[in-house]
Predict the 3D structure of the following.
Amino acid sequence: MITELARNVYWVGIVDWALRHFHGYELSTHRGSTYNSYLILDEKKVIVDTVWDPFRDEWLDTLRQVVDPAAIDVVVANHAEPDHSGGLLALMRHCPNATVVVSKRGAESIPGHYHQKWNFKVVGTGDRLNIGASELVFVEAPMLHWPDSMFTYLTGRNILMPNDAFGQHLASEFRFNDQVDQEELYEEALKYFVNILTPFSPLVTKKIEEVLALGLPVDMIAPSHGVIWRKDPLQIVRKYQEWAAQKPEKRAVILYDTMWQATRRMAEAVGDGLAADGVAYKILHAAVTDRNDALVEVFRSKAVLVGSSTVNNGLLPSLMPILEEIKGLKFKNKIGAAFGSYGWSGEGVKLIEEHLAACKFPIAAPGVSAKWQPTADDLEKCKALGRQVAKAVLV
Ligand code: FEO
């Protein structure tokens, strides 16, 4: 499958329909993904990013339909994660003298992965490489999302290849944004931003301003995953600016786990309190909800309410990975609250509040505990908790 993006510029990537987990098992990818690799045929023949190692032979066969891999002069490695650099070893066996273009940090990470003495060229922001009629312009993009990340821009065709930025884990028979279901596209673009880029939101804002200030015309944004933005390509840049501002919606998410349904009943009563004041919410049972999808709900929501039974003087274990991720993703502008049932020791609510404090979420209302199954009075307290949080959401 080859797609011509512009004259002499080709998508030569791989569509991975079966991928369901990424970064090992850290990220769910319900709609598969693509590994986008780009070929530019000018006086110099250039590859921008390769594909994940398991697909390297298939990728080289695709490439051969257009060019002999031995004829490649320049390989740009925008980022070292193996979903983009995994084809380097196989490719470089065919063109061992090709120049491998890397960022300053890429000069550490690419050799760190492959231990080869290739002909490296280290570039920084604003550096240009003449490839014939066109030039490649490089922009370092540290922490979008690795320290080595780099954007490559092709003059003449006005194509920005920003690697992971602006990508989506979305396998499709189509290559361009205007060809796919817009709801699916934006669901995946948002999930990608939330789970990968949220902690670097201030850097996203700064980098976008820096790239826009370069005044380079952009006809296409061709990321390393998912579809290419050709229709109104800056729409995804505007979305990133909006997401990076981290202004959550006036809504709530209730995350809980339960042993014998007591904490579930409390979660629903909290929800009744939120609804009474007109605040929309979702209740997510942590033990049966995809963690990465739950994090999208956390991102959207102003209020994050967490409930757990107390077990072994602690919280139910299904909550721990998501609480850990909420802390690591450094969500901003949230408020939190805690609730839960207990039988004997009852530390759950205090522990949740400690976790929320570690996430820097101010506590919007004191937590509610219920011993054994909640009484009608306990459920009223949960409803009152929901109403207090609703008031804080609507401020
Ligand atoms: Fe798509 Fe950071 O790798």
Remarks:
- Residues 79, 81, 83-84, 145-146, 164, 224-225 surround MU-OXO-diiron (CB under 6 Å).
- The longest strand covers residues 249-257.
- DSSP finds twelve helices and 23 strands in the chain.
